[in-house]
Amino acid sequence: MSDDFAHNDNWASNWAPVYEKFNSIRGRVAEAEETATFLERYCGGGSALELGIGDGRVAVPLSERGVRVEGIDNSDSMLTLLRERSDLINAWKGDMAKFRTEQRYNLVYCAYNTLMVLVTREAQINCLRSAADALHDEGYLVLELLVPAIGGFVGGQKTTTTLVDHENTFVTADIHDPLNQNLVSSLLWFSGTSVRRLPYRVRYVYHQELDTMAECVGLKLSERWGDWTGGEFTEASKRHISVYRRAGL
Ligand SMILES: C[S@@+](CC[C@H](N)C(=O)[O-])C[C@H]1O[C@@H](n2cnc3c(N)ncnc32)[C@H](O)[C@@H]1O
């Protein structure tokens, strides 16, 4: 793996300046209220910890509902964006693949496919273990992940146009690394006469593998939804919201 993709600072320094605009175009800013409404139900009036909190897209509306929200991110650029938006949230710089905290939370959550930015199975399991350790005995872990779409690759590569409007064109170029379940990708964002290249790398994971990884750290699936409004998870779903609790509850 090239360092270019392995280093999150690189990821974030590319994405941070355009993160809110990108999410706004993709409908993710508008969706954050729905996400916060969903998550609030699992907080029991208590506290929540977001893994990969970013600019607070979800954490800010959740904190505005009276939940005490904390967060971890390993990017200074993203934490700066968060601090510019809110002083309600205690967020610190750290690696969600191996964090330890004395605090215990009603809810730990990781939205917007963020678990996938950990590009090895070990890192993903370690993250789930840290998350499980950070939960109150009766707490919830909520994960939002897309359903892997690895059809359509020719010779291990695929190019997909995901948006064309009067101002912007988004083209994603993916290289598939099947041995590691990795996608090495770049979003090419054409706007006016300029183009911005936004590289990233992810390890995709199917929902049943996710359940097995969660079981490895003492958690058990309690609910699975197809979106943040509580839509059903079906074979047509493009993502899932999975809710885990301690096994035995
Ligand atoms: C897709 S963004 C999601 C941000 C936010 N959760 C949201 O829903 O808008 C992924 C975030 O995870 C952070 N991140 C990536 N790798 C990380 C790691 N190993 N530890 C902590 N944060 C990480 C990035 O800096 C970025 O802010």
Automatic annotation (TrEMBL):
Q: What is its EC number?
A: 2.1.-.-
UniProt GO molecular function: methyltransferase activity
Among Gene3D superfamilies, the record links this protein to:
Vaccinia Virus protein VP39
For biological process, the GO terms are: methylation
Q: Where is the Methyltransferase domain?
A: 49-139
CDD domains referenced in this protein's UniProt entry, alphabetically? AdoMet_MTases
Q: Which UniProt keywords apply?
A: Methyltransferase, Transferase
What enzyme class is recorded for this protein? transferase
What is the protein name given in its UniProt record? Class I SAM-dependent methyltransferase
Its ancestry begins with: Bacteria, Pseudomonadati, Pseudomonadota, Alphaproteobacteria, Hyphomicrobiales
